[in-house]
Each structure stands twice: as structure tokens, then as C-alpha cells.
Design goal:
It contains 10 helices and 21 strands. It has 398 residues and is of the alpha+beta class. It folds into 2 domains: 171 residues, FAD/NAD(P)-binding domain (3-Layer(bba) Sandwich); 183 residues, D-Amino Acid Oxidase, subunit A, domain 2 (D-Amino Acid Oxidase, Chain A, domain 2, 2-Layer Sandwich), CATH 3.30.9.10. Bound molecules: flavin-adenine dinucleotide.
């Protein structure tokens, strides 16, 4: 079994497949964790809130249980816990209404027996003083959820996989093409001309996926999205107890972020349409994104307006129509399974991804019906779905 890609999709798959008795070779073009990989960052949001979507919320519940199990395994091995259950605040500039992302998430959480706390403007100012007084007037805090140190998770998974006799990790080897015989994939050809044969290949190549599976070129597209690391002058306002992982009227502004981390940094990102880009092209954060960030900070976190930006990055989504992952067998080539399409929200499901991908390998991907099924081409409405879901015309923040 070959797994192409040492990000969270690939390493979660390799872990579960090896646990199920498969011999696995993971091949990555870079050194795992590859700095260019989407999985490699200081933090990723972990939440179960998905509006009215019970399937994603159920997967989120499973994943959060899984992060606790992984934390326990890491601490039992004398290593640091990497999932931080700070809770999540989802706040709104207007009253939270039905049909809105926050309002629907709140109702679905309660319908599933969770206990989110509704917050008004006064609660927000009292409990979370970094937020601009009186601008955010509604929302909720949910104690289950937080963030995970994604790059460190990838390092931990690679470390434990690398210590297993039934797993081989190959770093710094780019897969050039899949090798097919009689229409069936039987291995991969590397850039150095060598061929590695296997009975099955899992393509977990993130934003590069369509380069190996061109038939997905319209389905898994690389788009660039900025993240910023800021060093607050007054860190006390941004510690997790009073500044949990957050979304700030995300369907309208696109902004989300994290509490102060162990290095004294607050990370803020924006979940919007992004810029279409070739996965191997140079990655530059568009200048206007810094202006927009300043506008956002001026209405939301005035105490961060003079915080220096110590790092900025254009990170790539493997973006799909409607933002659902693609985890399925190839319809015409049963030597290949694709595991990709994280669409800016896949990392949080790390502890559950292995099961989904291994099930697809073993031919029982029924657990999620058509949601992650192989898709051929874009349909008009699919594009609109993604565009509508993401605040492509982000509101004026002045
Ligand atoms: C800005 C940004 C913010 C995000 N925020 C969140 C968040 O808060 N919460 C969340 O849950 N998710 C978030 N995500 C999404 C999440 O990061 C991704 O869904 C997830 O990390 C994708 O993992 P992956 O394994 O598919 O891809 P990657 O992590 O990109 O890994 C793919 C790997 O494949 C390798 N590869 C590619 N092509 C080849 C080849 N030909 N040969 C060999 N190796 C190859 C690459 O080197 C790379 O290491 C965010 C993503 C971005 C970009």
C-alpha cells in the first residue's frame, strides 16, 4: 500500500491502515511535516459547529473524542498534549438568526444534547474584554472544541509511524505519475525515474491532488488563503481563559482565530473565496489582505491594531464544490483511492479521517453515503454553493 502525501489525510490513513494490518509506504515530496503543506501550521480550529449539518457535527464529535485519546497517548509517552480544549466562541455583529451559520449551529448543538452558552453584548464584554465593546451583540460559547497544534501533530504521527516495522516513510521524493497497467494503477513513478509498485495507492496530496489525478482538475482546486501571526503588546487579554478560539461573524467577515499560543502569538485567518493558484507557484499574501485585516481589527480587537505581524502566509486549500471532502475509490481504476478536498476545514477531523479513508480502501465507504463520493465535474450550482457558503463579498468593516 502506498500513501502519497504526508499531511493529516495521508498520515491518518497510514496509521489506521497499518493498525488494520496493511504494510504501508508513505511518500512525500518534502520533509514531513512539509512547510508547504496545509497541515503544517501552528494551529487549526477544532469545532463541531456546522450549521444544520448533522453529519459533520457527528464527525466533529467523534474527532474531538479522538483528540482526547491522542492527547492521552502523547502524554502517556511523556510528550506534550497538542489539542487544547479552550472552547469556541462564535460571535455575531447582529442578532443570531435562524438560517444563519451561528444560529443554526446553536440550534443543532442543542438538538444533539450539547450545552452552548448564549452570549449577549454585556456577557461578551465582561468575559472576553479583547472584543470591541458593544460591536458583537450575540453568539455563543461552547466548551467542547478549541484548537490543535497541527504541525506538531503531523510530526508526532510521523514519529510514531516511523517507529513501526510495517510502515516506511519516504521523505523528499516527488511522485511524478501513477503507473497503470491494463487501466489499473500498480504503483507510482518518482521524479528520479524509479518506480515503486503496490497493490493500492492512496492519493492524499492535498492541493496537488489534481496533478496526479487530472480527472479531478475541476473538483479539487488549489486556492490560496492568508493567515497572520500577531504579537500582542498586552498578552494578558489574549490568554485562552478570556480569549478562546473564535469565529467573528464568520459568514459575513470570514475571520477566525486563536488564543495566545506558547510563543506569545495570536493567529488570525480568513475563510473566504481565496485566490486560485498553481500548487507549485510562488505564494504571496495579497497586500490588500493586510488592509482588510486592519479594518477587521479596528472594529473587533482594537488592542491588536498596533501588534506587529510577525509572520504571514498564503496557505492552500484543496477546494471542492460545496466544500465536501473527496474520499473514495476511483470509479474506473480500483487500484486508486483519493483522500483529499479538505477545503479549509479538514484538519480538525484528523482522528476520524483514518477510519473514513481505510473504509474506502477496503470498499466499505458506506458510512458517509454520497457526501465524500468521487465527483466528476463541477456543476453550475456547485460553484454557487461554494461561493454562497463563503463570504465572497465580505462586508465593509469600517
Ligand atoms: C489557511 C488555512 C487555514 C486552515 N484552517 C483550518 C482550521 O482552522 N481547521 C481545520 O480543520 N482545517 C483547516 N484548514 C484545512 C486543513 O489544513 C486541511 O484540510 C488539511 O491540512 C489538508 O491535509 P492534506 O493531508 O489533505 O494536505 P496537506 O497537508 O497539504 O498534505 C499534502 C502532502 O502531500 C504531499 N504531496 C503533494 N503532491 C505530492 C507528490 N506528487 N509526491 C509526493 N508528495 C506529494 C505534499 O508535500 C504535502 O506534504 C486550513 C487550511 C488552510 C490552507
Amino acid at each position: 500500500m502506498i500513501v502519497v502525501g504526508g499531511g493529516i489525510f495521508g498520515l491518518a490513513a497510514a496509521t489506521t491502515l497499518a493498525n488494520r494490518g496493511w504494510r504501508v509506504t508513505v511518500i512525500d515530496a518534502g520533509e514531513i511535516p512539509n512547510p508547504l503543506a496545509a497541515s503544517t501550521d501552528i494551529s487549526k480550529v477544532v469545532r463541531m459547529e456546522y450549521g444544520t449539518d448533522h453529519e459533520y457535527m457527528a464527525l466533529g464529535e467523534e474527532a474531538i473524542d479522538g483528540w482526547h485519546v491522542w492527547n492521552q497517548e502523547w502524554t502517556d509517552a511523556g510528550r506534550a498534549p497538542l489539542y487544547h480544549e479552550t472552547g469556541v466562541t462564535m460571535l455575531c455583529l447582529r442578532t443570531m438568526d435562524e438560517g444563519g451559520f451561528e444560529g443554526d449551529s446553536f440550534q443543532t448543538l442543542r438538538a444533539r444534547g450539547h450545552a452552548p452558552e448564549r452570549l449577549g453584548a454585556e456577557d461578551i464584554s465582561r468575559r472576553f474584554p479583547a472584543w470591541s465593546t458593544g460591536r458583537y451583540v450575540d453568539g455563543f460559547f461552547h466548551a467542547r472544541g478549541g484548537y490543535v497544534e497541527s504541525g506538531r501533530v503531523v510530526t508526532e504521527l510521523a514519529r510514531s509511524l516511523g517507529s513501526r516495522p510495517d510502515v516506511a516513510l519516504v521523505n523528499g521524493a516527488r511522485v511524478q505519475t501513477l503507473v497503470r497497467e491494463g487501466g489499473r494503477t500498480v504503483g507510482v513513478a518518482l521524479e528520479d525515474g524509479s518506480v515503486v509498485r503496490a497493490d493500492m495507492v492512496v492519493v492524499a496530496a492535498g492541493a496537488w491532488t489534481a496533478k496526479l489525478l487530472p480527472e479531478l482538475v475541476d473538483v479539487v482546486r488549489a486556492t490560496g488563503h492568508p493567515v497572520f501571526h500577531l504579537r500582542p503588546r498586552d498578552p494578558s487579554l489574549f490568554v485562552p481563559d478570556c480569549f478562546p478560539t473564535f469565529t467573528a461573524d464568520v459568514a459575513r467577515t470570514g475571520y477566525y482565530g486563536f488564543p495566545l499560543n506558547r510563543d506569545g502569538v495570536v493567529k488570525i485567518g480568513v475563510h473566504a473565496i481565496g485566490v486560485p493558484i498553481d500548487a507549485d507557484a510562488q505564494r504571496i499574501v495579497p497586500g490588500e489582505e493586510e488592509d482588510r485585516l486592519a479594518d477587521f481589527l479596528s472594529i473587533t480587537f482594537p488592542a491588536l491594531l498596533d501588534a506587529p505581524i510577525v509572520y504571514r502566509r498564503l496557505c492552500l486549500y484543496a477546494d471542492t464544490p460545496g466544500e465536501d471532502f473527496v474520499i473514495d475509490r476511483h470509479p474506473e481504476d480500483d487500484g486508486v483511492v483519493v483522500a483529499s478536498g479538505g477545503s479549509g476545514h479538514g484538519f480538525k477531523f484528523g482522528p476520524a479521517l483514518g477510519r473514513l479513508i481505510a473504509d474506502a480502501v477496503e470498499g466499505n465507504a458506506a458510512s458517509f453515503g454520497q457526501k465524500f463520493a468521487w465527483r466528476r465535474t463541477l456543476h453550475g450550482e456547485d460553484v454557487e454553493t461554494t461561493e454562497a457558503a463563503r463570504c465572497h463579498d465580505r462586508i465593509e468593516l469600517k
